[in-house]
Amino acid sequence: RVFGFVRDILVARVLGATPMGDAWQLAFMLPNIFRRLFAEGAFASAFVPLFNRRMVEGQSEAQRFAESVLSLLLPLLIVFGGLAMVAMPWVVAYFAPDGLESDPEALPIAVMMARITFPYLLFMSLATLVAAVLNSLSRFAAAAAAPVLLNLCLIAALLYGASLGEGVMARRESAFWQSVALSASGLLQLVWLAFWMHRAGFRIRLLLPRVSPGVKELGVLIVPAVFGAGIYQISRFVDLFFLSTLEVGSYTYLAMADRWNQLPLGIIGIALGTAILPALSRYLSREENDEAQRLQSNAIELAMLLTVPAAAALFVSGSAFTRVFFAGGAFSVEDALITGTVVSGLVIGLPAYVLIKVLTPNFFARKDTRTPVFTAAASLVVTVGLNILLVPRLGVLALAVAGSIGAWCNVMLLYAILVRRGYFRLPSRIAGRIVRIFIAALAMALALWALMGPLDPWFDGTILQRAGGIAAVTLTGTAVYGIAAILLGVLDRATIARLLRRQT
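Request: output the structure for the sequence above.
Response:
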């Protein structure tokens, strides 16, 4: 995440909120939308429980299952990628912002960039299979570190782009090399994960395609999971549609703001979701329901302890961070202020996004991939309806606010269904601690709000002034939240010990 943060600073300053900056964001989003659709969410949620069950029977059985899955996954990805590249001119033209379509040279470059980036989908889908195997073997570090390779590749391309100077031609060449770097990073991540899987003593051979009973069972589980993930990705396509109706720079504003939202989401939410799915699967397979309840409760408490203050701090001071870190080069102070406003809209839903990651494994561990489909569909209806109402009035900010409200609707539905089916009920003790977490975060937010006015000139000042302003915000927020959490009994030795232990 630190390397990704450096990458985003360079993207903002080298490409900025320009037509070429928006073209790069579109080329980056397209393969990633399909990666999240077919690979990370749907595939992993269906593959991990089946793989764990076979690991109980023996590693050789799990290996045969992984090999039969790979034998079908690879040709499907190759065919889909080829068709997507053929259709790319129409796809890019449909989702391109109005300013890009008006530039006769920018649109063909955007199509070329999208075609160059699309092999990333193939490499990362295969990497997801290997990462799922490693996670099921409780080898989390290699998969967690793999995105560093993505960021290193993009940073190298951006540094080269920065050396070209400013201007339209320099930005075009920089965006082109970023596209090349993206696909190269996917290949590097696949090789990296395969190396660590080999080190773990697990090998997957490439076989001729065959539909084994295990693959059929995976297909039964993955189809509704794909629809569930597809509903979320449909919302991403809805975002792309509305972005295409807004002014040039809107793609970049939303993408840069989402980086601040993804920082805590990636560190906390995805990590917790990845870690508890195998553990929940093991507890439920052994009918250890009390342990499953304890694990789920601990995950929710820790998620709220870490994400609620992050959301409160970014809601109040998001524009300070975007001005300090993004403003400069091709990214103006006005661009940074707009991005900061979008950050405030996005982080309203930050705790909800994390809770979705924490609650859905409770269904997946029971091989129920259908229920999250319905809850996601309901939240999508809410999100799209709000977009229709708010985008003409609020512009790109509406996309952030609508997505946040939709995420909270999803959380409420997931929890209500868990309670109704008797799968999980949040203990009153944990619910009380969560209330106190919100109170502590509110105290911190008020302190930061009082600090924003006096520090405002610092955020656009010299490097030392900017660093001092961010340090003051960070230290004040941490101190106020920490003291309030201790006084309210939220942060104690037992909670700190759970944060530091390897297992939740």
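The chain has 19 helices and no strands.
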